[in-house]
Amino acid sequence: MKEEIHPKYELTTIECACGAVVKTRSTKKDIKVEICSNCHPFFTGKHKLVDSAGRVDKFRKKYKKQEAR
Q1: pTM of the model as a whole
Q2: Contact (Cβ atoms closer than 8 angstroms) between residue 28 and residue 10
Q3: How far apart are CA 7 and CA 39, in angstroms?
Q4: What are 10's strand-pairing partners?
Q5: How many degrees, rounded to 5, is the angle at CA 39 between CA 31 and CA 20?
Q6: Residues 14 and 22: beta-carbon distance below 8 Å
Q7: Contact yes or no for 15/31 (Cβ under 8 A)
Q8: Cβ distance 46 to 58 under 8 Å?
Q9: Would you kindly state where each structural domain of the chain is located, as residue ranges?
Q10: Strand partners, 22
Q11: I need a surface site. Which of 2, 26, 33, 37 has the fewest CB within 10 A?
């Protein structure tokens, strides 16, 4: 490997707007993000399924489980 061509890979902290702090290693120093897995709606379970065109209901009607006879 050639010397002096690779960036420094050092300890850094990633800070979220919600206050979560993650320590990791990176070529960048002190990264700030707006959203993380602690506050993102998908990961927290507060994610809502938005179905403005009625596609989910249409799918459920089409593939509704048939009752046993």
Answers
A1: 0.52
A2: no
A3: 31
A4: 26
A5: 45
A6: yes
A7: yes
A8: no
A9: 1-46
A10: 14
A11: 2
Burial 9-37 (b: 16+ CB within 10 A, else e): eeeeebebeeeeeeeeeeeeeeeeeeebe
CATH number of the structural domain 1-46: 4.10.80.400
pLDDT of residue 44: 66
For tokens 């120093």, the residue is 29
Name residue, tokens 């048939």.
66
Quickly tell me which residue has 């897995």 as its tokens: 37
Q: Which two tokens stand for residue 24?
A: 């990791």
3-state DSSP of the chain: CCCCCCCCCEEEEEEECCCCEEEEEECCCCEEECCCCCCCHHHHCCCCCCCCCCHHHHHHHHCCCCCCC
Q: Where does the pLDDT of residue 45 fall: very low under 50, low under 70, confident under 90, or very high at 90 and above?
A: low
**Does the pLDDT of residue 43 top 70, yes or no?**
no
